[in-house]
């Protein structure tokens, strides 16, 4: 039985297989419409979500399976004090696969140790978000035609941004990758990402504060939200939240081929005026999320089409 807790749980070859399956699903959706008939997926969201939960639910529906679950801890027995382990043991006796988001780092790993069925981490605190990373990889592959030889700027909350941590971990396994890490001093990338991921692989990276100065070098610009829910102190959030706001004017020196990605939701870090520029890829990225999650469900359930 396989789980997906960290993007490193998948090899580079397995990720390429998932990308190829997702591309085939996009081209031939009817081939897959009954692939998970009689299978059930549970979405257990202890933290808010729009894209991740609904794309998983849409993915399972499009595979002919069924979905059950909850979208907030308050509507589950967690509100009565039930542990994650007991919740997972219970739900895993009802369904074939579990998707789980939790505010505590490591909760999906705990879940995977007691579950009778595959567990997918749909985001754990400020730690990891591997299915967002699969979405990002499919998007980069489709926009750029491959995953090698790219200069990737990551901008915003690099400290608490779980999508950033998982994406750096994933992209570090491809060749010719450089990172430009754009953040205020207080929201720099955690030391463990540098010492455990970037430095052992000799991946070139620079930490900078200016978005405008970085843009001309980039093939990908991955914008992120400064996340109010991760701050202990409202004053710090208010001070940092508007540090970066991408506007069409700031893109005037960008490469023509620059792709702007964002895991969403956005607050105001990308002006809506950017949406109609050729750089904006984030709404295509949202759509890709459903197809790569369909591919992942098939893989973890061992269903071949
Ligand atoms: N990208 C992402 O995780 O979005 P949601 O919080 O809406 O699921």
Notes on the structure:
With 305 residues, this protein is an alpha/beta fold. The chain folds into two domains: 7-128 and 289-301, Aspartate/ornithine carbamoyltransferase (Rossmann fold, 3-Layer(aba) Sandwich); 131-285, Aspartate/ornithine carbamoyltransferase (Rossmann fold), CATH 3.40.50. It has helices at residues 12-27, 51-62, 84-91, 107-114, 130-144, 162-171, 191-198, 211-214, 234-240, 282-301, and strands at residues 40-45, 66-70, 97-102, 119-124, 151-155, 178-182, 205-208, 220-223, 259-261. The strands form two sheets. Strands 7-6-5-8-9 form a five-stranded parallel sheet, with helices on one face. Strands 2-1-3-4 form a four-stranded parallel sheet, with helices on both faces. β6 (178-182), α7 and β7 form a beta-alpha-beta unit. The protein is globular, with a radius of gyration of 19 Å. The two termini are 19 Å apart. The structure holds phosphoric acid mono(formamide)ester.
Write out key terms for the chains shown.
globular, four-stranded parallel sheet, 9 strands, Rossmann fold, 2 domains, alpha/beta, 305 residues, binds phosphoric acid mono(formamide)ester, five-stranded parallel sheet
